[in-house]
Amino acid sequence: MFENIKILFHQGKQYIPDLTTAKVPGIFRGRPIIHNDVQVDEQLLVDLCPTGAIQKNPLSIDLGKCVFCGECAFAAPEKIKFTTDFKISSNERERLIVREGDDRPIQLNPQLIRKEISRCFSGSLKLRQVSAGGDNSCELELNACGNVNFDMGRFGIEFVASPRHADGIVITGPISENMAEPLQICYDAIPEPKIIILAGTDAISGGIFADSPALNRNFLNKYKIDLFVPGNPIHPLTFIHGILELIGRIK
Amino acid sequence: MIKHISIKNNQSISLHDIPVLKYDDFLAHNTSLLKEEHHHCVNYFGFPQERKLRLICCIANDNEHTILVSSSLINLDSTLPSFTHHHLSFHIFEREIHENYGIRYSDHPWLKPIRFSHDRYDRNSKIENYPFYKIDSEELHEVGVGPIHAGIIEPGHFRFICNGEQIIHLEIQLGFQHRGIEKLFLEKKKLLQRTILAESIAGDTVVGHTTAFVNLWESLCGFKVGNDLMFSRTLALELERIAIHTGDLSAICNDIAYQLGSAVFGRLRTPVINFFQIWCGNRMAKGLVRAGKNNFPFSKELGNRLLHLFEQYEPDFKEMYAEFKTLPSVLARLEKTGIVTKEQAYSIGAVGMSARMSGIVRDIRMTHPHDLYPQLHHKPILKHHGDVYSRTQIRKEEILQSIDYIKTLLKNIPEEDKSSQKLKSPSANAFAISLTEGWRGEICHCAITDEKGEIAHYKIKDPSMHNWLALALSVRNNEISDFPLCNKSFNLSYCGHDL
């Protein structure tokens, strides 16, 4: 017992006090900025991108397709810069596209948030996670959301074991053909009202797997997606911040 | 007559140099090699050639540090005697050949689908109709778990046959994670796309799989790898080992409801993966390893930060582990739980921690060293009980060993190699093999190129391919309530297996 208390004392405070103003360490690749006063060969960047996230006229990066490899920023460092802004979640697919000259935060579109979400879930949100072809990196980061550093539980947001106890589903991975049916069964088992969150580039667009015939993404055509969380993998802060905005804890 | 060609790790050879044997000789030769303990099969696969199937078998010789490659050309509608009948460790490879190409085996004991890949031979074989083993008895009952599990983990189905609380048999059905990665390696033509694919094989082993890929690619292209690249890869592999092992210790504590251990080990992982972010911008090290170049050269300043990190990590880690291992309530759950004997581990061809926990010396860092491992003179950490506690102890000791290795590496940080050596295209009609010791065990990538130098076949083997069977064996006669703990103590990859 004494030893345990000593260990607790040695740990000190490990949690991040304010998740909304936290800074990520190092050279994190978050929201990119494309400068419009620099001329580059745009086609070169389009051809370079491994997942077709870069389009030209005007030059843009779709964060729903981007795998955040950063190669475009190495090829044209004056033109494209990835900032450490981790607040890149949105509930509108279109808002994940960053165009030349854009330098404003990515936010949710309040018009599109269903009214029942803040009414039912602002104080408590229980989520069921389904990995459908996810490579275990987003899954590790979702686990990290609940650890002592990020401590998502302080907002009443938790992952639960049974879909019957859940208010929504968090999907990772490009949705493999072999997981299409289990995903549907899990979603059907969640009581209404319920939300759908896509975590990670693979889930949002298929990412590098987008053209694979081994996927079955029909599930996504059937329902409204309440939150897109880009990243490869997602950063825990991106995820938590996105959800807090969705349930109305951050305006 | 030459029965195999003997090559080194990360060597590429002409495809024509691989001897083609008659199937009977091919079988006799490779199965007789496995009678000696210093041989084990690192990869065995088929690839279509001239309307036939070329089977290629790669056996590692741990004493001579070589890989013995042989092949056989068979008809696509063949029924063959199996390697598995002679040595069980071939079972997974022959099941894969059967599933992908429809080759039948006359004496394979367990010829079941392994992942229901999209391009499987029999499209009528469906994942919902997997042929589970059954025992007819009034006393026994079945428990099905998954594919979706209680925690945030990947999907897979576990079917237990139990006598009361005791597990008689466990069958593991995988394939839910299949994304068709090996096919995409052929279809995606850009090197960057293939590198991103390699990073996504298993997102918890980004450095391991990507290192295997780039070493293979550079070998095919005849690229001379500089010291700075080898330094970064070796350091990143050891750092990945520290991060995941620490997280696993946290998860093991969680599964035995030891809250303090779970919290402390969990938070100790954070600065380690954050260091990856400081170094390369990603907590899982995606973006770090690239063929023929290094976007994030390692600096003296980074070295100092890492040393500072270890100064803080080590005392906290040691203090926590020292307390953890003295608690009777902890030891009661870990000791003698989930045992795999040395004989079992050897017969199924276990690799990595799952081999070393039972006293088998199997570690690519020692037997087929790549990058800077030759100068580290790695000595594998061995345990002998094969239980959950052995797997826990290995993690703890490997973490401390990896910290030592990194400190050794940091004494001599190489200058960035600025000579602009260009990466050429891969040589034509070549075969290359790359072995890497990831934190989970031995990773093997093989590639074959066509007459234009394009990839004609790409084969990935994650250590989990061998080790899932070790988990199934370990839980026999254990209580079903110990299953989550056993599962976590192996921490195998679903997506690495399903590809």
How would you describe this protein?
The complex is a heterodimer of chains A (251) and B (499). Chain A has 251 residues and is an alpha/beta fold. Chain A folds into 2 domains: 32-99, 2-Layer Sandwich (Alpha-Beta Plaits), CATH 3.30.70.3270; 110-246, Rossmann fold, CATH 3.40.50.12280. Chain A has 9 helices and 10 strands. Chain A has helices spanning 2-11, 42-48, 71-75, 115-121, 137-145, 180-188, 201-205, 218-222, 236-246, and strands spanning 32-34, 54-55, 60-62, 80-82, 97-99, 125-131, 157-159, 168-172, 195-199, 227-229. In chain A, β6, α5 and β7 (157-159) form a beta-alpha-beta unit. In chain A, α5 crosses α9 (236-246). Chain A is globular. The N and C termini of chain A lie far apart (44 Å). The two termini of chain B are 37 Å apart. Chain B folds into 2 domains: 5-114, NADH:ubiquinone oxidoreductase Nqo5 subunit (Beta Polymerase, domain 2, 2-Layer Sandwich); 181-498, Cytochrome-c3 Hydrogenase, chain B, CATH 1.10.645. In chain B, β10 and β11 form a beta hairpin. The longest helix of chain B has 29 residues, at 227-255. Chain B is built from 17 helices and 14 strands. In chain B, the strands form 4 sheets. In chain B, strands 1, 3, 4, 5 and 6 form a 5-stranded mixed β-sheet that branches. Chain B has helices at residues 23-33, 91-101, 181-187, 191-200, 206-220, 227-255, 259-280, 300-324, 328-334, 342-347, 353-356, 364-367, 373-376, 388-410, 464-474, 483-490, 494-498, and strands at residues 5-7, 12-14, 20-21, 39-49, 52-61, 66-75, 79-80, 104-105, 141-145, 157-163, 166-173, 430-437, 442-449, 455-461. In chain B, α6 runs antiparallel to α7 (259-280), α6 (227-255) packs antiparallel against α16 (483-490) and α7 runs antiparallel to α8. Chain B has 499 residues and is of the alpha+beta class. At the A-B interface, α1, β6, α5 and α6 of A face α3, α4, α7, α8 and α17 of B.
